[in-house]
Design a protein that fits this description.
about 325 residues; D-Maltodextrin-Binding Protein, domain 2; six-stranded mixed sheet; NrtA/CpmA_ABC-bd_dom; globular; about 45% helix; alpha/beta; five-stranded mixed sheet
């Protein structure tokens, strides 16, 4: 009888120790990741993934998923490079420029294509791009995706360049959400505008379309957003990268199959992040200029960065070999 009691105690203690060990192991496996994106319509896949909690579905149980919203590509890329975020959506311009500068990053998918519109202030006296000599234009940042698209078009098709290189057009920078008010007050003449802010300008009546998306340089072929992560994460935690990309693919497919619900999510998230509520008509109009896809073509990116070099945004011509990694989307 004593032997039986002792044996029972040993079993109970062993079970408790096993349970404690299991709990500790599970606790050590729980992780925290942060995904970044911008509050604009080209980044709807990020908004859908957040609202639908898709990363929580594809990552291991217990993973805490956080989100960080960025005002510009430079801040986003710095966050990726320092490990502040695991990855997310950014314009292709900042991704390529940072890669060219030596950043160890990978583009593992796209988010959308299109959505850049050249808008002119109503009373600026601009009827065509040829009228831009001596006029001012605004872009989000010097050398950003929309800036390169606009300046490439103007140089190649109209022979006009910005004052950055001694040209005829005055260049200023600012947040796209402010463009409508800047048009209204006459502070700038033309904007290279990402959606949905082009449609906001149209709806508010402060400007008109000068060049629509298909005619802008790389307007329908260049990814308007790419999904970026660090080379370190790709090399050392490929399963995590695959889980993240799987959620991004699900979000993109949700947008393709459920456009009305995706539009509602976009309206909600943009209001939550920017405190600016966009009308359904603005979103409907902007949606027509965008294709949501996670496929990415490295040759288009190479052509684009060649244009960036030609405009003087880069000191040396760059080879983007190794930037795009398709193994996670195929």
């Amino acid at each position: 009888m004593k032997k039986f009691v002792l044996f029972s105690v040993i079993l109970i203690v062993g079970a408790l120790l096993t349970a404690c060990g299991s709990s500790s192991a599970e606790g050590s496996e729980s992780e925290e990741i942060t995904i970044g994106y911008f509050p604009n319509i080209n980044h709807v896949a990020g908004m859908v993934a957040e609202e639908q909690e898709l990363y929580s579905e594809t990552l291991p149980d217990g993973t805490e998923v956080n989100y960080q919203y960025f005002p510009d590509g430079s801040a986003f890329m710095t966050a990726v490079e320092t490990g502040e975020i695991e990855g997310g959506l950014v314009g292709p311009g900042p991704a390529m420029n940072h890669f060219a500068s030596g950043a160890d990053i990978n583009i593992v998918g796209a988010g959308s294509k299109g959505g850049t519109v050249i808008m002119a202030r109503n009373d600026a006296g601009i009827e065509s791009p040829e009228d831009l000599a001596g006029k001012s234009f605004i872009s989000p940042r010097v050398g950003c995706t929309h800036d390169v698209q606009f300046e490439t078009m103007m140089k190649e098709e109209y022979g006009l360049t910005s004052d950055r290189v001694g040209g005829e057009m005055k260049h200023v920078t600012g947040k796209p959400a402010t463009y409508a008010s800047m048009f209204e007050t006459g502070k700038v003449d033309v904007g290279t505008v990402p959606e949905p802010w082009a449609s906001v300008i149209e709806e508010e009546g402060t400007g008109q379309v000068l060049v629509d998306t298909p005619e802008v340089a790389y307007g329908e072929t260049l990814p308007a957003a790419v999904f970026v992560t660090s080379q370190d994460l790709v090399d050392n935690e490929p399963e995590k990268v695959q889980n993240i990309v799987d959620a991004h693919k699900q979000a993109t497919e949700f947008i393709q199959n459920n456009p009305d619900e995706a539009k509602s999510i976009a309206i909600k998230k943009i209001k939550d992040i920017t405190d600016q509520e966009l009308s359904r008509s603005v979103i409907d109009n902007a949606w027509e200029r965008i294709e949501f896809s996670y496929e990415v073509d490295q040759q288009v990116l190479q052509d684009f960065i060649d244009s960036s070099y030609d405009l003087g945004f880069l000191d040396e011509q760059q080879d983007l070999e190794g930037l795009v990694n398709k193994e996670f989307i195929n």
